[in-house]
Amino acid sequence: MNNFDFLNANPQYRSFSKDCIDAERAFQNSYDSCVKLVRSALDAAIKFFYAKNNKVAPDNLFDMIENANLDKNLADKLHYCRKLGNAALHNEQEFSKEDALQCLKNLFAFVNLIDNRQRNFKTCAENILGTELCGIKLNTPIFAASGTFGFGEEFADFVNLERLGGVMVKCITLKPRRGNDGVRITETPSGMLNAIGLENPGVEKFLTKILPRIKDKMNVIVNISGSSVEDYGRLAKLLDVDGVAAIELNISCPNVKDGGIIFGTDEIQAAKVTQAAKKNTRKPVIVKLSPNVTDITKIARACETAGADCLSLINTLMGMEINIHTWRPTLGNITGGLSGGAIKPVALRMVWQTAQVVKIPIIGMGGIRSANDAAEFFLAGASAVAVGTANFAEPNITMTIADDLIKYLKSCGLNNINELIGKVKFR
User: Catalytic residue positions?
Assistant: First the structure.
């Protein structure tokens, strides 16, 4: 008997893996049910095959098999499954053990072909997208941005977490936070406003309950926030543990000890936070820059001088929405952070400007929704990119971007993503 359980190891196969496994189990009780499930699994698997090869699928299964450019022997096997499957669906005959077993074998041959091609594609991806950032090996230079991806495990059914460069997990503070009251998210043209208020379980629960579950599944980048310089130092020290790949400093927060000045809008404050974190951890320190400044390059240079290993930019832009029927602000916090496609031109400009004045790597983010968007950030000087708001609309968007980025690099005749970085032309 074949074993389809290996399909569960790859979330990309979820569209057909369950029917494959159920068909194998049904073989023990009902050959008719087994054949029906094989037909259902084949339908989903062939559609997956077409999607991964960027081909438009014909309307019926017969034409799908005929136009899939499969080996004739395999195509005949799939037609056999289709013929028996149709008969099973219409209760036209009863099936023998041999009929059902042959259907399972034929289906197994096809999903094995799919898996082998995907593995070869992954190898290609590792070669062309594989890179390194601050000493961290990346299978792809594509991260999931903090606040849009939970702790990563929530997306495990949609994304191959190991294939991501890493996950910048939900922001962590010293103590648990419940976040802001009232409406916390509202959609805007080509984006969204959020005023979540850094809701999180606190560092202790993260270290004892969450990190043990996720540390072996991906590169874990812990985004941290505090209300004083000392908070950042304490958090960095607590998170200097196995399973944490790097720390990202969210400096778009007020320093309560210095009259509420935002860390990220003042180069002196930004440098102090960076120094506090660096002093207390052996992990790479990534500083996430705020766009709500007059000159982002001043902040960038200050962080680099203070010892930052990497910069990520940009964080959200401050925005507001008013309900014209109630005449009140939509968000309970009045203002919120604007993200999504609308901010991409601003983010891209700031990444390019920053890349001109620092030597440390940059992770570009802000409105990335496609491989084309990502390519722009690499050309502007980013060494990696992070996808944020787009994850809400398309949970598997990071994988789509990775696949399409490979095709783009090949079309440019490039052998590795690093050949694209900073290559924007002005003449």
Answer: 253
